[in-house]
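tool=predict chain=A
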Amino acid sequence: MFKFTSNEIRDLIISFFVISIAFAILYSGRDFSIIPEILPMVMVGVGSGFILHEVAHKITAMHYGYWAEFKTWIPGLFIALISPFFGFIFAAPGAVYIYGDYMSDKENGIISLFGPLTNIVLAMIFLLLYLFTMTSSSFGVIQDPWTMRVLITTFILGFSINSFLALFNLIPFSVLDGAKIFRWNPLIWLGAAALAGIMVFFSFTGIPFY
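tool=predict ok
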C-alpha cells in the first residue's frame, strides 16, 4: 500500500523549503533583495523536481515489495544552504530509505534510475511550456509583459533546476543514484548522464531569459 507517514511529509516539506531557498540564493546571484521575487518561481521547479524525484524512488521501491520512506539528512540541509555562496548547489537534503530483504543490483539500479529520469521528463515538459509560451507571445495570445516575464522565468528555472537535479544525482559517487545505476548497467547510466549533461549545458547557454 502506497502511503506517506507524518514524519515523511514533515521531512519532505522541510527539505523542499531548504532546497528552494538554496536555489533562489544561487539564481539570484546571491542578491538577497530579489530573492523574495524569484523564490516563488524557483519553488515551482523545486517542488516538481525534488518532491517527484523522491516520490518516484518510493513508488518504484514499493512496486518491488519494499517499504520506502524519505528522511532528511541534517548535515545535507546545512550544506545545501551554504553551497550557493560558493557558486553551486549540493542538493542532498535527504534520501528515500528502503527497507526489506536482499535487493539485487538490478532492482536497486532501476529504483535509483527513476528519480533522475523523472527530472529529465520534467525538464522536457518545462522546455515545451517555455517554447509554447514564446510562440503564444509571438501571436499575441499573452499580451501582459509581467505575466510573460513570470511564466518564461518560471519555465526556464523549472528546466534548469530539473536538468541539474538529474545530472547531480547521476554522479556515480557514494550513495548518489548514479553509483547504483552504474553498478547495475553502465550503458544505461552513460545514456542518462549524457542526456542530463546536454540539458544542463543547454540550460546555461541555449535559453535566454525574457
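The chain is about 70% helix and 5% strand. The chain has a mean pLDDT of 91.
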